[in-house]
Design goal:
With about 750 residues, the chain is of the alpha/beta class. The chain is built from 20 helices and 38 strands. The protein is globular and about 95 Å long. The N terminus is likely disordered.
Length: about 750
């Protein structure tokens, strides 16, 4: 190593070497032998007291079976196609006119690699022509010694100058030419074979032109290529937009009998609602709420499970201008108290099912407030009876000149609250427009299709998949108002109701693949999606094997709409979230807010200058400090860590607070969780950091086993060895615990800091 390295960097590298040695169970004597140095010298190297020669680092990496990058940087190399190393940063065969190739080791037998001294003569004729490419087996390393070249590897082009280098798979079409008016001389190392994993590409899915003749095209401008693939999106007249008036009512006027929703009650009662039904019932609800004294700007909580009345009520509130606050019926007294006080709630619509109304009354008393309480599906003293009362009001609700729209607040969503009390993300009326991309290019909703998103209405995901985007696309939504997820009841519904598109969180997919899916006809589904948490590749493969459907992952937050996804027309890399949604301003930055290079971990941000796109929240209600902490310097900071590969795909690492720092290594929990989930006896897994006096932190895995599997010490060792073999050894969990269940938020996300 050069003298420019600080003592801290040197110590970090020495610590990594020592940690890897201990993981593999090697003595210092054995490592000295393997690296061809005296044991005393080896001990000095491992202590971090002396500089480390590059040759020694290279031998260590070979012994450990890792890239040298792991020792130098504390993380594995990630880019599978190619990586460029610029001059000073350390670390093709062709036969045509103007090219001279000299084998630098012609007499060496059974070479693992062949070094060539290559000269490309400059040709003015070749400068404006496509670069001729070739392929061959193996891997190739090219280092420019003199001059400059333009090299093409696959669809990528790079300019390399003296001291720059590139490493790539030779099976990828590649070629180069000399530039800058002079010959280019470079050293080429060609490896005879390629045993590396192939890129995780799955072929393109569901290609075909999507419909364009939609009423919402007045507000949404989508730029597509000749195949219907989204290239960009912008918005028009968004400051005048109100979803209830401009989408639902507009469709109802044009096609009053068009199907809006198929609703299946918990007792399997079937109801079908047209857009005219929705227009009429929402207007009745708006008039009803107005009669109860609910006015523009009031905060109204909706705790309605998957009752069809939710759609009537939320649209009515949008017309009236009161702010809707969806909430889950899983909340208890203390949850309601916090939310009532934090949001200054004045009214609540509540399901009559279960004990939810009891909890609301207890919270009302504890918070010392007086709520307008409206019960749905029953009657109760002190409560208005929604089902009986709203029907008494007019089906007409005229849109006033100053009706709420555009940047006016429309909706409040409570965040997951994994690290404290949940915050209230406030959204404007433009939020609905942001979900156009969600439904059309991710869910692939169709005008004559039926979309099924599993989510309960208390979660933001319901707004992603059960309301705004699907109706912007003028398609119908399917809702099953179940109390408990039962795959055996749900799976037959796909055929029975001809459900065409489906979305569920990874947890639900994990439950589905445990079923014998061959017993069910799922042929009506042509597209499957997932969001809410990162998708383990093993779940992807198992679901595809069982159904032939490829799950398209997407990423977003309570504070935004779909920001990263495998959209219509994209190839899928299992395990990758996809690419940024056009026009959203997604990027990955370091701690100082500077963009990072491909392959480097950083925080996902949304660039909001000059203005945020439709779908980005207004801020946290009554919490300017929290807003400013995540929204500054022209960027909204998501707090999620990811890296971007050379093809522009984003790979999830974890929440910034979840990244594990162990013995100089930076370890993302999701990769380890995904590896452990490959084991057939693992039902759920959560990985976190555990304190360690020597290493600072170590990896801890908490595992829920499938029924019938006994957690033994032998099984722990088996899991540890499996991780060592299928990831870099330093990532293996030193602590393995078997649990009956894992701590989760109300929304079902694993709370890693409570493992």
């Amino acid at each position: 190593m050069t003298g420019t390295n600080t003592s801290t960097q040197l110590m970090d590298i020495a610590t990594r070497i020592r940690g890897m040695r201990e993981i593999l169970g090697y003595s210092t004597g054995k490592m000295a032998e393997q690296t061809e140095v005296a044991e005393e010298i080896y001990r000095q190297y491992e202590s971090g007291a002396v500089d480390l020669p590059f040759s020694f680092l290279h031998k260590c990496a070979k012994v450990f079976g890792v890239e040298i990058t792991v020792l130098l940087e504390g993380h594995s190399a990630k880019l599978s196609g190619y990586t460029v190393t610029r001059r000073g940063k350390g670390l093709v065969t062709a036969s045509e006119d103007g090219i001279t190739i000299q084998d630098m080791a012609p007499m060496f037998r059974k070479k693992l690699a062949t070094p060539y001294w290559v000269t490309y003569q400059y040709s003015e004729e070749l400068q404006n022509k496509p670069i001729h490419t070739t392929t061959h087996t193996g891997q190739e390393f090219d280092l420019v010694v003199k001059g400059a070249m333009r090299i093409k590897v696959g669809d990528h082009e790079e300019v390399l100058r003296e001291g720059d280098s590139i490493f790539y798979k030779s099976s990828t079409p590649h070629g180069m030419i000399a530039i800058d008016g002079q010959d280019c001389v470079f050293l080429s190392m060609i490896m005879a074979s390629d045993t590396t994993d192939q890129p995780l590409y799955i072929g393109q899915s569901h290609k075909g032109k999507l419909e364009q003749n939609l009423l919402c095209n007045k507000f949404v401008n989508a730029l597509e290529d000749e195949n219907g693939v989204l290239q960009g999106v912008s918005f028009s007249d968004e400051e005048t937009y109100n979803f209830a008036f401009d989408t639902v009512d507009a469709i109802a006027r044009r096609e009053p009998e068009k199907l809006a929703m198929v609703h299946i009650a918990n007792d399997l009662t079937e109801r079908r609602f047209t857009f005219k039904d929705m227009k009429d019932a929402s207007s009745q609800s708006a008039n009803y709420f107005k009669s109860l004294g609910i006015k523009r700007g009031d905060r109204v909580m909706l705790v309605l499970k998957r009752h069809y009345q939710f759609w009537f009520a939320v649209l009515g509130l949008h017309k009236l201008g009161a702010i809707a606050i969806p909430a889950t019926n899983q909340l208890m007294e203390h949850d309601f108290v916090y939310r009532f006080q934090a949001a200054d709630v004045s009214a609540v619509l509540c399901t009559a099912d279960g004990v939810t109304a009891d909890q609301v009354e207890l919270a009302e008393k504890s918070a010392n407030i007086n709520l307008t309480k409206i019960l749905v599906g029953g009657s109760r003293e002190g409560w208005h009876d929604y089902n009986e009362e709203y029907k008494l009001f007019s089906r007409r609700f005229e849109r006033a000149e100053d009706a709420p729209c555009g940047s006016d607040p429309m909706l409040m969503l409570f965040t997951s609250g994994t690290t404290g009390y949940p915050k209230m993300a406030t959204h404007s009326y433009k939020y609905a427009l942001g979900h156009y991309v969600t439904a059309k290019y991710w869910h692939l909703c169709e005008r004559d299709g039926l979309h099924f998103t599993i989510s309960e209405t208390g979660w933001g995901k319901a707004l992603w998949g059960k309301l705004y985007g699907q109706w912007l696309c003028e398609g119908a939504v399917f809702t099953y108002d179940f109390d408990r997820f039962d795959a055996e009841k749900i799976l037959p519904m796909f055929k029975q109701y001809n459900i065409t598109t489906f979305c569920a969180p990874p947890t639900m997919y994990r439950m589905l693949i445990k079923q014998d899916l061959s017993k069910y006809d799922l042929s009506s589904i042509h597209h499957a999606t997932t969001a809410g948490e990162a998708l383990n590749p093993e779940v992807f493969y198992q679901f595809e094997k069982a159904t032939g459907l490829r799950i398209h992952e997407g990423f977003g937050q309570t504070e935004m709409t779909l920001g990263i996804a495998n959209l219509y027309g994209a190839d899928i890399k299992p395990g990758a979230m996809g690419k940024p949604v056009p026009g959203y301003g997604i990027d990955i930055v370091d701690a100082d807010g500077n963009p990072v290079e491909d392959g480097v971990n950083g925080e996902i941000v949304i660039r909001t200058d000059p203005k945020p796109t439709c779908g980005v929240f207004l801020g946290y209600y009554r919490n300017q400090e929290a807003t400013d902490s995540v929204w500054h310097d022209g960027m909204y900071h998501t707090g999620d860590v990811a890296w971007r590969d050379e093809d522009g795909y984003y790979w999830y690492v974890g929440r910034a607070d979840d990244v594990i720092k162990s013995s100089g290594y930076r370890i993302g929990p999701f990769e380890i969780e995904s590896t452990i989930m490959e084991l057939p006896y693992v039902l759920e897994c959560g990985v976190c950091a555990a304190p360690d006096e020597v290493r600072g932190q170590v990896v801890k895995a908490c595992i829920v086993l499938v029924e019938g599997t006994v957690g033994t010490e032998e099984l722990k060792k088996e899991i540890q060895n499996y991780v060592k073999q299928h990831t870099a050894p330093y990532k293996y969990p030193r602590i393995v615990e078997f649990r009956e269940s894992l701590p989760k938020t109300i929304s079902g996300k694993i709370i890693r800091n409570k493992l």
